[in-house]
Design a protein that fits this description.
homodimer; alpha+beta; 2 domains
């Protein structure tokens, strides 16, 4: 069974003046979603949205994707229909069309999505461009998807139709494509990545790629309305699945960077430093190491 | 853990005058290989080679790939080293470099490889171009990899260093990249695909895509030296994993098509017909339906 173009491979016409951006992402039953609990429709939406987020993080625009799906024979009926429904809605919303893939049978549900995107020649933003003195920014609010996951665990499959914003962010995340593209084309960001595994884990990766360190101001981390207290800050620092953008900006550029983009907050949360440590400033008197405590499949 | 470029996504420079060819392929423990029996080195080689074969089947040249790997923590040492060794050898041989991917942890070993290739603008050969009257060709010998699989099952992991050609074809297949490119650029092939799931299964797919039927001459199916008898013919008609090319050629073009390409046999094995049936001519008196009896994950 082949999906999409139905040939051995998909054909794609690159646009002159653009580079191709390529990314693949696992979405596995048991690790990334629960077969019996997560709606198949959300699984379909999220497997594409999270892969597209990696394209957004380079400043690229998604164009097409390959769906690799392995399912048990028992799931080729209703589950598959609902899964494909969610996937199609995401594909339409993200303007990213299915170009092919590979489908096979397996006892555990396995999904891998490859997204192909484009970025204007020379405009891609890498993780490795952060320099000491750059300001550290995040888009939107952090920790909201983690809060949504906690709500989902409490409520289970039969969530009310009127979903809370947090639950919606957990089930149907929206990658920041326009923002990423705008930051890249206007050369605001010196380095950028998406926040999929939690700020404390992902910031470490950006700093490692750039050969720098960072200090994060705890009180500056933007939390969703109604989130407060130590637990909420923990969600903001370590919670995964937000798919917001983490980016660094040269101090001069930061002066002309608006603090909102299409209604989305852009918040400075700290600074890039020469030392290789990742630190958290709790108040004027205390600075502690910010240990990577987000998602890491080999540490769980 | 990220492999390759270490950024959110890989950047790739398309070549002017070329289209991009994209394919993804599963390679799963239990379905496509056995953890305890197949050498990790062969798993690494074969997962890339079989995905590249889909690029060859379009007349394309492979350029880079994304490796998606999920392994148990127990396999991050020696198994992973040997796997990456086989993968690197294949990447060098196939001139296809690793550009990125995604690695996570899972109890079952999961591999998905996406290959990006190029084909000259307008020269890609699809499955859908076969027309009644076209001659049906295959490259090389059929059924050899199936014979190798049988030999492997008898001998197990401790195969002798001097592998038989059949065993080598099972463990370290070589996709027909040069042949595919040559057939495409010289416009010999009206339709083309690779033989991964067995002639009887794959021919059905090519005919369906083209809206035609076919008659295969049983006595014309090329078998490896020493293969004879009904069982050998069964391997040739239904055995998978050969990664040879199946292609159709207009009768006029067939006259100028040499019967060898760089020492590789190109054998006419039948003809495309107007009717939608796939038939096998056993002798002058008997023609029987050729039922798809190769690999199909949803029928096993």
């Amino acid at each position: 069974m082949r999906l999409g173009c139905g040939d051995d491979a998909a054909l794609w016409q690159p646009r002159p003046g653009y580079q191709t951006v390529l990314t693949s992402d696992w979405f596995l039953e048991g690790s990334h979603f629960l077969r019996e609990k997560h709606p198949a429709d959300s699984v379909g939406w999220k497997c594409l949205a999270r892969a597209v987020s990696d394209i957004a993080a380079m400043g690229g625009i998604p164009r097409c994707f390959l769906l690799n799906l392995a399912i048990p024979a028992s799931h080729t009926g209703r589950w598959l229909d609902e899964f494909l429904g969610g996937l199609r809605r995401a594909a339409k919303f993200l303007r990213c069309s299915m170009a092919g893939g590979d489908t096979t049978r397996n006892h555990q549900i396995l999904i891998n999505v490859t997204v192909v995107g484009e970025v204007k020649q020379g405009k891609a933003v890498l993780r490795s461009g952060a320099r000491p003195g750059d300001l550290l920014f995040v888009s939107g609010n952090l920790g909201e998807a983690e809060l949504g996951l906690q709500e989902f665990r409490r409520r289970g499959k039969h969530a009310p139709k009127a979903m809370s914003p947090a639950l919606r962010k957990h089930l149907y995340p929206k990658p920041q494509i326009q923002l990423g593209q705008w930051l890249a084309e206007n050369q605001f960001a010196s380095a950028m990545m998406d926040l999929s595994d939690g700020l404390s884990t992902d910031l470490g990766r950006l700093c490692e790629a750039s050969g720098v360190g960072a200090v994060v101001e705890e009180c500056a981390v933007p939390l969703a309305r109604g989130m407060a207290g130590q637990e909420a800050i923990g969600c903001g620092l370590h919670g995964g699945d937000d798919y917001e953008l983490l980016f660094t900006v040269h101090p001069k550029q930061a002066q002309r960077l608006p603090r909102q983009y299409q209604g989305l907050r852009l918040t400075p949360i700290g600074e890039i430093t020469r030392g290789r440590q990742i630190l958290l400033r709790i108040d004027d008197a205390s600075v502690v190491p910010l240990k990577p405590s987000g998602w890491d499949p080999f540490r769980k």
